[in-house]
Each structure stands twice: as C-alpha cells, then as structure tokens.
Amino acid sequence: MNQVTKSSSASSLLYIDDLSSANLDYLLKTAALFKKEFYKTGSLIHCINPEQTKGMVVQLLFAEPSTRTRASFEVACGKLGIATTSLWNLHFSSMAKGETLEDTFQCLMALKPNMIVCRCGELKAIEVFLHSSSIPVISAGMGTKEHPTQALVDAFTIQEKRGKVEGEKVLIVGDVLHSRVANSNLRLLIRLGAQLGVCAPEALSPADKQAWKDVIRFSSLEEGIKWADVIMCLRVQRERHSLRNIGFSMAEYRDHYRIDQENMQMFRSDGILLHPGPAVRGVEIANQALNDPRCHIITQVENGTHVRSAIISLMLNLEIKSL
Ligand code: CP
User: Fold this and answer.
1) Which of 64, 117, 138, 150 is the best mutation target for the ligand 1 pocket, counting ligand atoms within 8 Å of the beta carbon and taking the most?
2) Backbone torsions φ then ψ of 95, nearest 5 degrees
3) Alpha carbon 304 to chain centroid, angstroms
4) Is the pTM of this model over 0.85?
5) Alpha helices, DSSP H only, in 111-172?
6) 50: Cβ below 6 Å to ligand 1?
7) Which of the four pLDDT bands, split at 50, 70 and 90, describes residue 7?
C-alpha cells in the first residue's frame, strides 16, 4: 500500500491558495487511501490513531442551505471518531433574536470545539474574523467567492476517473459569475496542470477578467464539448440574480447551455460529466444526460466524504497509519 507522506498542517482552509503543493499532494493521496480502505473494510478508524480523535468535537455552522457539504462533513467526522455539533437552522438560533453572525461565531469559538466548518455569505468582517481565529476553520463555501473543499472533490474525481488532472481539458458551463465552485476550481485545476475552458452567457461570465485571462472562451457549447475531456456543469444560481437583469429567459438558457442527450453525443466516449450539485433537472442538465454512464455526479458526492476525511486529518494534524 502507498505510504502517505505527511505534509505540514494548514491552520485554516478558506481559499485554495491556503494550501501548499505538499498539502494538495497529501490530500489527494490520503483521500485515495481512505476510499480504498473504506471499500475494503467499511471503516476508516484503523487508518488513524483513535486515541488522537477521542473526545474531539467539530462545530458546523451553515448560514446558507446545503445538503451534500454539510452531510459529508458530518459523515467524514463520524468515520474518524470525531463528534459533531451543527448549527444550521438559523431561524432557531439566537440570530433570530438579533445576534449578529460575527457574535454567533464568537460564541461558538468560546465553546472551544477542535475545529469549525462554516458556510456563509461574503461578509468582509467574517472573513477577517475567520482569518484571526485561534481554532482551525474550514470554509464550506463562502458566498460567490470560493468553495475549496468542493474543488478538491472535483480534482480527486477527475484524477480517479481520467487517471490524471495534468493536461486535462475541463470545460466549465453555465453561471460562472456566481459560482464559488468555479472560482476555487480555476485556482486548483490550473495549479494541477489542467487546461480550462468556459462557456457561459455574457451576463453570467466571470467578472474578474484578469483571474480568468488564461481560460479559453467558447461561444458555442458544441465547440466546447468537442474540445473537452471533462464537462463541469454549474447550477444557475437564481437566488443570486435578484438584483441583476440577466437579459435572457430560462427557456433561452436551456436552448443554449443545457447539457442534454444530443450534445452528449458530441462528447468523447471516455470523457466525464461533473456537476458540484445540486443539479436542477431540465434547467442546466437533462434527465438523459444524468443517466449517461459518463455522468459521475453521484461519484462526486461519494468522494466528498473521503476527500473531507482527508481535509479533516490534515487540519487536525492526525497521524495516518502506513497500512
Ligand atoms: N456542492 C455543494 O456545495 O452542494 P450543497 O449545497 O448541497 O452542499
């Protein structure tokens, strides 16, 4: 079995650039080890020293909706023997009585969990606060800014299904402007040597032209699909469009950007179709495309647990046994 080389522990993970190259290497290898061991034995507890995680508690705070990120962090902690406590229905927290999110964080930190996992909007004050936290913090997605753990899941899935990330042509389709997943993937996949392409309506194209300058723009979905090894489809984040006139109807969006059976026929036979989820059937992706054998959206969800177990191990500086 491959021995995992322990890299130095990161103190907090808010952005992809918080991770060194050694951290990235450690995370991809440890997630592969965890997946293999979990398939073999149904457990991960033999991969670590259980004395290290005994009594540990991770606090989750989700100020925006989530299914897979929150559930996979809870499952990942459980598999490593770490207890979790979760604050997510903020209508039933003291925020409903007027407490601010910053004060809510301060309160949770005073309880001294071993780590905090949080999803929140883009609040400058929160960012500064999280950076100065004495307790490790993992971002589970921050507004439209970054979602580093999802990008790590995507890179791991590309490596697993395509054999490598370096040199892979990854086409990102859809609402790039509002996508924290796209922003983290831009940083991560380019660092890992992938080539990126983007196909999006003008109104949903990346705002930061400088950051996206090396990414190929495709005006035609067909052209992009013929170029790509990996298609990464994004959800149209209508909840973030409320202040913008995006200049087209959902019917027009479907006509030009939805991945369906017809354009899957133009896609290479060994390519892979990804979506960070939640995928809205019929809007950005058609039912037939979801049922195509090249679609690995559920594998991404499964990999989410293994990748997040590896992230937790890195952040809490857990020893991984050489098996
Ligand atoms: N990909 C992702 O963040 O999904 P959830 O919103 O369900 O957590």
Assistant:
1) 150
2) -65, -30
3) 8
4) yes
5) 124-131, 148-162
6) no
7) low
Q: Report yes or no: 136 and 172 within 8 Å, Cβ to Cβ.
A: no
Instruction: Measure the CA–CA gap between 60 and 46, rounded to whole angstroms.
Output: 25
Burial 228-240 (b: 16+ CB within 10 A, else e): bbbbbbbbbeeee
Q: Average of pLDDT values for 123-129? A: 74
What is the amino acid identity at position 132? S
More confident residue, 255 or 35: 35
Q: Are the beta carbons of 180 and 47 closer than 8 angstroms?
A: no
Q: What is the pLDDT of residues 185-230, one digit of tens each?
A: 999 999 999 999 999 999 899 989 999 999 999 999 999 999 999 9
Return d(Cα 206, Cα 133) in angstroms, integer: 31
- What pLDDT does 2 receive? 47
Asked if 97 and 306 count as a contact pair (C-beta separation under 8 A), the reply is: no
d(CA 250, CA 252): 5
Average pLDDT over residues 234-239: 86
What is the average pLDDT across 77-82? 97
Q: How far apart are the first and last CA of the chain?
A: 6
Q: How many angstroms does the Cα of residue 179 sit away from the middle of ligand 1?
A: 11
Ligand 1 center to residue 49 CA distance, Å?
A: 30
Say if strands 195-199 and 137-142 run parallel, antiparallel, or are unpaired. Answer: unpaired
Give the CA-trace dihedral at 44, 47, 50, 56, to 10 degrees: -60
Output helix, strand, coil percentages for the chain, rounded to the nearest 5: 45, 15, 40
Q: What angle do CA 76, 298, 191 make, to 5 degrees?
A: 75
Q: What pLDDT score was predicted for residue 323?
A: 66
Distance CA 162, CA 224 (A): 18
Report the greatest alpha carbon distance in the chain. Answer: 57
